[in-house]
């Protein structure tokens, strides 16, 4: 049996303990945080600690036609790191070194298993700044961030993970090790393989080292927390802020369903009560931060804000950010389970999106709370449902599909930052069309002709 | 003969006058501004005015296996838009509409033939800002900027053309029309086809419409012009500025050869005399601009600047920028011809690059002047030579190759913003290696299986 041979070769190529076949241990690493689709049954879990070992794994898998599923912290929300039948799960978590932080070139060279917050702290100690901040930053890894082109609250000012990936060392499907690009700020000698690998969810290559761009440390974070009688009012204030010169570093919305869910989930949270929408608008400007805050407050007042609180004290700010981070757990706690959507539209279409989400939710049998990165037009409608109630499970699935369709109808995307994984494959024809999907598959084939890299995902 | 059929079909598909076969007119559109390599002899020049016409051209070319060479303003510096034998030159200059400027979504939708400065002016009138500013911005087109991933002086703060291309409408080699991506700020549903097409120099697809990201208008430009006794001193000041919180919007170097050439080319230029290096450091901050300027002046003084002039008055600033823009024409005027290099290295390697460039030039028989975007580690060594002197022509070619090799040796790139075209194909093995080159060719094949799009370029 091929599986036996593959395992023997893996054990010969890797250190003792780096090949795990215990079914419980493998099962524990078979699903990411999306949780909806049932994963496949993997052959083994491997824990390489060097690029050479990743290369050896790929060569073995390539020779035998065995699928490889690259994995980080399993915090993904689309099933992108889920096991597929017969696959080798390749955990990059043991490759967690920060190789180098260079203050002159303003880059960090890191292995894929570095936890995002650990990198952020390490560069901050050098007076530098790594902006991407996905909600799971305390546990997710840079490799996973690269695989999904992860976003976060600071994207509205700084951009997404791709904007900070300067060069990658990757292992190709046949085990060859290449660098995608010189580590210079600008380079147009080659096609943009770096940007292509970012966001490819492990379907094109396995990232074994990344050179990441850094910025000088920002100023102190401060801002405004404003509430509104309608979501439309909050959106109008947000548009006014984005149209002005005071570009916020964070511009987040929480609707009334989410606000109620957070207050129930954490009674100590000090969110303003009774509002239909909350805006959190922050700046981290080195200079002119007070002018930014004043501009945000003015924009809120001019759009009939119910309350406008200055969030300039660190304690108040931490409390607000903690409440914002409780968004998804609070929605999940509401009925016991949740589906986390991740749609994005041009900002001008947000009012229509929000209105039609409310219409979808009304009478559906499930609860939909919406919040997220409205400065980027990227919101997370979260569908809360009781997993023990078949009617609610079915309703959640129905609303899930309706939300995907709605995003496409409004000229948007079904995923701004979470990825396609397995959960959103159904939506790709509507979003990309058959010609682009076919082109993507041919690009996949150029990288991975025998289709062993994370098959069944993304494309 | 196939050519006759192709021309007949093109004439049937396009409006009267849009198919040009007059040899002089075709020859006039057969070379870009690189000027070194002799172009091929094209079959015809076509001037489509709609995406449907571009699609029809591609279908005809695809059916007959005729090469297509997409062209903008022919201001490129690598031969990327040069004619190849038997090709149809596809000028996109007639597709020059600014379709839409949207202040809420902060995007501009444009056709490829729009001149960069025309777009910049149009969005400025709406209080918005399109940052990419290649030196040829008064005549180059957005389509050409996208093809080369053009840079410019403001990249050090804002990034390159790719960072502002949100979505593209492209015509594929077989004539199919697709959009690469929804026009949302964030979208991870597909592979990054947008970034892949940007910088591909017309080898993957023909861009027929671009949705470009805009920013709110910046503040007034102001800064510092400082001179130094050594290039090393100027580089040290530049590194100090980049390491600090006062990120400049422009950080340019001119060495003594360039300074002398500019003073000879334009005696009215008011550059400080007698210096070995000049730094131009500008800010366009809305708030804190004065603090930025003070920080730049301080950094220059601390690195023993000979002179530090504040450039805060518009007239003085315009004069300095005009002198900087005279860099390449002045070097060309020095001996009658020039080769414009475009190397980039990590900023920490700049001192070694500059030192070894000087060593290469010494006794070579040609003159090398270096300047450019040192905030990005991207400099333009310009080789000035007498085109009537065979010894100098040979020396220029020799130094050209040595500079390409040097960039690769220092872990850099042979092209930060100009592209590969035909002039730098020789350097690709050293920079990318055979595995990446092969991977690029397979990606090309995924887009263009019959290899009709700009063959012989880039890859």
Automatic annotation (TrEMBL), chains A, B:
Keywords: FAD, Flavoprotein, Oxidoreductase. Its cofactor is FAD. GO terms for molecular function: FAD binding; oxidoreductase activity. InterPro entries: FAD-bd_oxidored_4_C, FAD-bd_PCMH, FAD-bd_PCMH-like_sf, FAD-bd_PCMH_sub2, FAD-linked_Oxase-like_C, FAD-linked_OxidoTrans_Type4, Oxid_FAD_bind_N, Vanillyl_alc_oxidase_C-sub2. Coiled coil: none annotated. Residues 38-217 form the FAD-binding PCMH-type domain. Signal peptide: none annotated. The keyword Flavoprotein applies. Belongs to the FAD-binding oxidoreductase/transferase type 4 family. This is FAD-binding protein. It comes from Pengzhenrongella sicca. The lineage of its organism: Bacteria, Bacillati, Actinomycetota, Actinomycetes, Micrococcales.
């Amino acid at each position: 049996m091929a599986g036996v041979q593959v395992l023997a070769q893996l054990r010969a190529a890797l250190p003792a303990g780096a090949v795990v076949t215990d079914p419980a241990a493998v099962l524990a690493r078979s699903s990411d945080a999306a949780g909806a689709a049932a994963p496949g049954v993997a052959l083994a879990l491997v824990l390489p600690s060097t690029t050479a070992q990743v290369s050896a794994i790929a060569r073995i898998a390539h020779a035998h036609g065995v699928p490889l599923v690259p994995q980080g912290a399993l915090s993904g929300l689309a099933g992108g790191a889920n096991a597929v039948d017969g696959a080798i799960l390749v955990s990059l978590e043991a490759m967690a070194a920060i190789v180098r932080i260079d203050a002159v070139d303003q880059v960090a060279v890191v292995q894929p298993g570095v936890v995002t917050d650990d990198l952020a702290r390490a560069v901050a100690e050098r007076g530098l700044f790594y902006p991407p901040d996905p909600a799971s930053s305390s546990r997710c890894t840079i490799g996973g961030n690269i695989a999904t082109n992860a976003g976060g609250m600071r994207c509205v000012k700084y951009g997404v993970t791709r904007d900070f990936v300067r060069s990658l060392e990757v292992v190709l499907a046949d085990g060859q090790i290449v660098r995608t690009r010189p580590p210079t700020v600008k380079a147009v000698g080659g096609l943009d393989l770096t940007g292509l690998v970012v966001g490819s969810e492990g379907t094109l290559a396995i990232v074994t080292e990344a050179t990441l761009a850094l910025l000088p440390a920002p100023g102190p974070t401060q801002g405004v927390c404003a509430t509104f009688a309608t979501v439309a009012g909050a959106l109008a204030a947000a548009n006014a802020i984005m149209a002005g010169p005071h570009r916020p570093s964070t511009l987040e919305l929480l609707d009334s369903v989410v606000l109620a869910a957070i207050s129930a989930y954490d009674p100590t949270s000090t969110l303003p009560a009774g509002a239909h929408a909350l805006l959190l608008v922050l700046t981290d400007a080195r200079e002119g931060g007070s002018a930014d805050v004043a501009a945000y407050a003015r924009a809120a007042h001019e759009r009939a804000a119910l309350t406008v609180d200055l969030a300039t004290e660190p304690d108040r700010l931490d409390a607000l950010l903690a409440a914002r981070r409780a968004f998804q757990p609070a929605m999940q706690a509401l009925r016991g389970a949740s589906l986390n959507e991740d749609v994005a539209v041009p900002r001008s279409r947000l009012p229509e999106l929000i209105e039609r989400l409310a219409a979808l939710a009304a009478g559906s049998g499930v609860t939909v709370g919406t919040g997220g990165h409205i400065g980027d037009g990227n919101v997370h409608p979260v569908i809360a449902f009781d997993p023990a109630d078949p009617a609610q499970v079915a309703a959640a699935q129905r609303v899930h599909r309706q939300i995907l369709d709605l995003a496409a109808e409004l000229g948007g995307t079904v995923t701004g930052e979470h990825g396609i994984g397995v959960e959103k494959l159904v939506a790709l024809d509507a979003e990309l069309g058959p010609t682009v999907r076919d082109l993507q598959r041919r690009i996949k084939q150029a990288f991975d002709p025998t289709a062993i890299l994370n098959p069944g995902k993304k494309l």
